[in-house]
Structures are given as structure tokens and as C-alpha cells.
Amino acid sequence: MTPAERLSAIRIARVNHAGEYGAIRIYGAQIAICRHVWPSLADQLAELKAHEIEHCALFITALRERGGRPCRAMYLWSMGGWALGAASTVLGPNLIWACTEAVEDTVHQHLTDQLAFLRARDPVLHDLIESIRAEEEGHLDLARHHKTRDTRSSRAFQALVRHSVNLVIWLSTWGESSRMRRDLEAAA
């Protein structure tokens, strides 16, 4: 890899670690509220949170192996994740699943870009992301299955979630995510 490609691989591992931490915070807030209001949902969300904890550990290891440090914007992922999780839960079960759907769908797009970039440059990180993406797709399918209705308010909430996730990804990569997407589109 060139030095620029190596830096991109570090940024990918960094933003993925931060994203998994944000997902842990989302599920943590949802579980805390659901335990009092919708206990049956809390158990399902706890299972998804366990997956995110495992993914977070895998990405911090990948980041350290490449000589990188955690994201400087972790507080955004932490506070934003908690606020998003709490807001979605207060708005009801449909919005919990709408939140999960929007987050996972947005992340899926970024992972796809990352995989295309990493395929020939960092096969180990590529394979790690590919294995995690498969589990994240399961989260997306589960959310789509449980989301009971698609309303104007759920679509607006999902648009807000998507924009928020894209913004924090962009901030966490110093714009690298946008440049990578443009480079991949130009190469196609």
C-alpha cells in the first residue's frame, strides 16, 4: 500500500470502531428504557448490542494492528448514539426498528465502499469487514421485519438518522469517506 492508502485503511478501521461504539450506545439507551416499557424488546436489543460489542473489539484490534488510535470524535458517537437510542425508544417500538433500519442501511453503504477500496489493498481488513457486514445485514433484515409501518414521521426520523450518521462518519474520517466514494465512482 502507498502511505495514503495505509492512512485510508487506518481511517476505515477507526471509523468502524467508532461506529460500533455508537451502536452500542444506541442499543444501551434503548435497552435502558425498554426494560421499563417494552421488556420483550429489551432482550432482543440486548442480543444485537452483544454483536456490536464483539464488532467493536474486532475493529479496535484491527486499528491497533495498523498503528492507529481511536477516533477523536468518540464523544460525538457516544452522546449522539445515546440521544438517538433514547429518542427512538421514547417514540415507540416502530421508531426503534426504524432507527436500526436507517443506521444499518447507511452503514451498509459505507461498508460496501470500504470493501471495494480494501479488496486489493488490505485483504485482512477486507475479510474482517466482510464478515461483520454479513451480521449487520441480519440486523437490517430484522429491523425491516419488525418495523410495523412506514409513516411520514418514521420516514422523516429515518432521514434525520441517515444524515446524522453520514455527518459523524464524515467528521470522523476528516472527509475521507467522501473522497473514497468519489474515487471509487470514478474508477468504475
Total DSSP E strands: 0
* CATH fold-type name: Ferritin
CATH architecture: Up-down Bundle
Strand content: under 5%
- What structural class do the secondary elements suggest? mainly alpha
* Structural domains: how many: 1
Specify the biggest β-sheet. Answer: none
Mean of pLDDT: 92
CATH class: Mainly Alpha
Give start-end ranges of low-pLDDT stretches: none
Descriptors:
globular, 7 helices, Ferritin, mainly alpha, 188 residues, single chain
Task: Describe the secondary structure blueprint for this structure.
Elements (H helix, E strand, L loop, with lengths): L2 H35 L1 H27 L8 H17 L2 H26 L4 H24 L5 H21 L3 H12 L1
What would you say this structure looks like, in words?
The chain is globular and about 50 Å long. The model has no long low-confidence stretch (mean pLDDT 92). The chain is mostly helical and 188 residues long. It has helices spanning 3-37, 39-65, 74-90, 93-118, 123-146, 152-172, 176-187. It has a single domain (3-187), classed as Ferritin, core subunit, four-helix bundle (Ferritin).
Question: What's the gist of this structure?
Answer:
The protein is mainly α and 188 residues long. It has helices at 3-37, 39-65, 74-90, 93-118, 123-146, 152-172, 176-187.
